[in-house]
């Protein structure tokens, strides 16, 4: 039996605070000077909240956001 391509994808469970923070970074990318790779990763965080995404890129984007929080002495909520 053949499995559909859709069945191979899993959805990453992105918390709402992570999605909102990623949107903030993307909306203010001129202020944060995001590289193309980082912009892609944060976009995948947003898409992961909605449905399917590139999970590795989304996880990297979430980890980047967590590191930025830690750098300023905050505890990330995601």
Task: Describe this protein's structure.
- Helix content is 67%, strand content 0%.
- The chain has one domain (14-71).
- The chain has helices spanning 5-8, 16-27, 29-32, 36-50, 55-71.
- It is built from 5 helices and no strands.
- By secondary structure, it is mostly helical.
- The chain is globular and about 30 Å long.
Summarize the topology:
Elements: H1 5-8, H2 16-27, H3 29-32, H4 36-50, H5 55-71
User: What structural class is derived from the secondary structure elements?
Assistant: mainly alpha
Share of helical residues: 55-70%
Distance between the termini: 39 Å
The succession of helices and strands, N to C, reads: HHHHH
The backbone outline, from C-alpha atoms, is globular
The biggest sheet, with number of strands, parallel, antiparallel or mixed sense and barrel status, is: none
Please indicate the percent range of residues in DSSP E strands (runs of 2 or more). under 5%
Radius of gyration from CA coordinates: 14 Å
Overall structural domain count: 1
Short structural description:
With 78 residues, the protein is mostly helical. It contains five helices and no strands. Helices cover 67% and strands 0% of the residues.
What are the main properties of this structure?
mainly alpha; 5 helices; disordered N terminus
